[in-house]
Automatic annotation (TrEMBL):
GO terms for molecular function: biotin transmembrane transporter activity. One of its GO terms (cellular component) is plasma membrane. This is Biotin transporter. The chain crosses the membrane at residues 30-50, 62-83, 103-126, 133-157, 169-194. It is a multi-pass membrane protein.
Length: 202
C-alpha cells in the first residue's frame, strides 16, 4: 500500500483515513485543517441551552470527532488548535458567537481544550481502522467523548466552584443520551462512506 505524502503523518501508520483518499499533499492538508476548524465553529452555533446548567448542548462534539476520524489525529488536533486560537484572538467562533480569553478560562473552556486531545484519540483509532465498522466507530466516539469530559468536567468544577459530583452531573451525565445518538449516527456515516469509496478493506 502506498503511503500518501503528508509530512505531519508518520509513514508507519497502519491504515489510511478517509481524507487520505483525496489527491494532493500539503495544500490538501491545510484545506482539511481549516475546513474542520470551520465546521467546528459552525456546529458551535447549533446549541440548545439547558435551564440551570452552564454548558449548553451543541453540535460541536459531533463535528470535532467526525472531523478527527475523517482527517486523522495530527490534522484533527491541528484543526482544533486552530479553532481554539482564532477564538482566543477574537473571532466569534465559540458557542453563541462568543470569543476571547474569558471563554477559554470560563465554564466551557475545558471542553474546547479537550477537543484537541480527543481529536488525537479518535484520529489514532481511525488510523487503526475502527471507523470502518459500526461498533468500532461507536467505541472510537466513546473514547473521544470520554477524553473531552476528562478535561471539561474538572475545568467546570474549578471555574464554577461546583463539587465533583455536581460538575459530573451538570457537565457530562446530562449530555450522555445526546452523545450516544451522535456516536450511532457516526457509526452509520463513517463505515458507509468507506463502503462508497470501495477502499474499506485497505
Amino acid at each position: 500500500m502506498t503511503t500518501l505524502a503528508f509530512p505531519l503523518v508518520p509513514r508507519s501508520n497502519p491504515r489510511r483515513v478517509l481524507a487520505d483518499l483525496l489527491p494532493g499533499t500539503v495544500a490538501r492538508d491545510v484545506a482539511l485543517v481549516v475546513g474542520v476548524a470551520a465546521l467546528t465553529a459552525l456546529a458551535a452555533q447549533l446549541r440548545v441551552p439547558i435551564p440551570g446548567l452552564p454548558v449548553p448542548v451543541t453540535g460541536q462534539t459531533f463535528a470535532v470527532l467526525l472531523g478527527a476520524a475523517a482527517i486523522g489525529p495530527v490534522r484533527g488536533a491541528l484543526a482544533q488548535a486552530l479553532y481554539l486560537t482564532v477564538g482566543l484572538v477574537g473571532l466569534p467562533v465559540f458557542t453563541g458567537g462568543a470569543s476571547g480569553v474569558e471563554v477559554v478560562f470560563g465554564a466551557s473552556g475545558g471542553y474546547i481544550v479537550g477537543f484537541v486531545l480527543a481529536s488525537l484519540v479518535v484520529g489514532a483509532l481511525a488510523r487503526r481502522g475502527l471507523d470502518r465498522g459500526v461498533l468500532g466507530t461507536v467505541l472510537a466516539f466513546a473514547a473521544g467523548t470520554a477524553t473531552i469530559y476528562a478535561v471539561g468536567v474538572p475545568w467546570l468544577a474549578v471555574t464554577t466552584g461546583m463539587g465533583a459530583g455536581e460538575a459530573l452531573m451538570a457537565g457530562a451525565v446530562v449530555f450522555l443520551a445526546g452523545d450516544a445518538i451522535k456516536a450511532v449516527l457516526a457509526g452509520v456515516m463513517l463505515p458507509g462512506a468507506w463502503r462508497l469509496t470501495g477502499a474499506d478493506k485497505d
